[in-house]
Structure formats: C-alpha cells, structure tokens
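Lab notes, practical 5.
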Amino acid sequence: MSTLTGINRRNGLPGGPLQAIRKYGAVTRTAMQNTAVYMRSFLFRSLFFCLILFMFLQLWEKVTGEKGGVAGYTMNRLLWYYTIAEIVTLTRSDIMERLNTDIRSGDVAIQLLRPYHYLGSLYADAAGQIALRLAINVPVGCLTALVLVGPLEGFRLLHLPFMILSVLMGLLVSLTVEALIGLTVFWTEDNTAFWWIAQKLAFMLGLFLPLEMLPGWLRQIAVFLPFPYMMYAPARLTSSFSWEQCAWLLPVQVLYAAGLLAAGLWVYRIGSKGVQNNGG
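Output from the prediction step:
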C-alpha cells in the first residue's frame, strides 16, 4: 500500500466530527474573506443584475400586451420569478474552475496529501463564496423587484422557510452538477463542451422560460432532468407558492442534491485512485 493511499484514508475526518467542523469551517471563512476582496466587482454585477430585471420586465410587458400575464403568471409574479432565478444563476462558485486547474496541472496529487478531504474542502470553499454572494444578490434583487413591480402577490411569512430551503437546494444541485463536470477532467482534456451543454439546458429549462411556457412534450421530459431543480423550482415556489407544488418540488430537489453529491464522491474516488496509482 502506498504512502499516498495511507495518508488519503486519514484525510477525511481526523480527530472526530468537531475537529472536522472547525477545519472546514475555517476553509469557508477564508473563502468568504477572499471573496470579499472583489467587492467592487460584485457591485458592478449588481448593477448588471438590476438591468437584467428591467429588461425582462420591458420584454414581457411587450409580449403580454393588454393581457398583463402569461401561463398563469401575472407580471408581478413573473418578475419575482426571474428575480429568484437570476439570484441562483449569479450566486455560483468557482468549484468547476478549481477542479479543472488542480487536476490538469497535477496539483491534485499534492492536495491529496493534505489532512483533509480534497473534494470536501472545495465544497466548504464554495459555501463561503456562495454565502457572501447571496448576501449581496438577495437584497439587490428583491429591492429591484420591489421598485419595478411592488411586493410579491400572495406572499405569506409561513411560506418563507420553504422558499429559502428551495433556493438553497437549487444552489446545491447547481454546485454538485458543476463539481461533477469539473471531475470529468480526470479523463478528458477539455470539459468545456459538457459545461456549455449543462449551462444552456439550465437556462432553457428554468431561467429564460418557466416550465409552464414549454410545449407539453418537452415539459414531460424536463421534469426528469436535474436542470429545472436549479432555478425553476425555487423561482416557482417563491413567485407562485402552493403546498401542492412544494410537496413535489422540494423532495425532488433534495433527492437530486443527495444523488449528485453521492455521484460526485464516487467519481472523485475513482479519479483520485488513478492519481495515486500513477503517482500524480
């Protein structure tokens, strides 16, 4: 058994759960501090976010005309839908880019020697980035929507915990998909095509158009894919909450998040074994 394998077995949770929480918590805090350095860039993105929402509103007002709504969405609910969908879209980490860089350069072999789980540390780092970006994108998006169309119709505080949970699950599904794509670099020279396809499917199946606006046959296919559960699910639950939708969308989000996390760990285990066997 190689030294690398022996070390890698120990780099998951040495010292017990409390030490692991402190260790990965430190990674998350460091990521937040590093992300905060680029605050000026985030502020410029916030202006872009406001512009996107304004353009969506102008577009759909022209499309709907006197009807004032489409596919069961009023203009108020439609803009709040796009607000939440854009929040999820803009609140992404660089986990895929980190995996691409580390694996291509061979630095992953060094990372495997460190006293923590490499993929777990990347998730902890991503959590820090996402937390800070959410803290900016949520107030900016909600304030813009309030100015443009007013408070969300039918909003109830009772619904808020489920809305928040759905947004977090959407971010987790998106994060795990990005991690899976990044892990394909263990076997491929360039995974740009995979990311391009996944990104466009996510945009088509939830960002640009709610599922209710898609043809019936496409909607029936879409509900079995992970992409609507990134942006459509949280945006739908927030803009047009119903207990029936909540009982369908939230459990599926949780299942996809858990399944994709498990798939990512499995792919990582296979890829890291190849690095160990080849000596980096």
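Observations recorded by the TA: The chain is about 75% helix and 0% strand. The radius of gyration is 20 Å.
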